[in-house]
Amino acid sequence: MLLDERTKTESVLLKHIDLTSGNFDRYLFSYGRDSGVIEESIRKVGLINPVILKKDPDAAGTYSVICGYQRVLACHKMGEVSFEAKVIGDLSNEKILLLALHDNKSSRGFNEIEKGIVLKKFLDIGYSYDRLAAEITQLLEIPPNKNIIDKYLSVLGLDGEIKQSIARSELEFERASLLIALDDADREVVYRFLFKESTTNTNEVKEAIRNLLDLKLIKKIEMEELLLSDEISHIILDSKSNKRQKGEKLCDLLKSMRYPSIRMKEDEFEKSCRELKLDNDVRVNHSRYFEGDEIRITLKAFNEDKLGDNLERLLRNIRNGTFKKLFSIIK
Question: Based on the structure, what is the number of domains in the chain?
Answer without folding.
Answer: 4
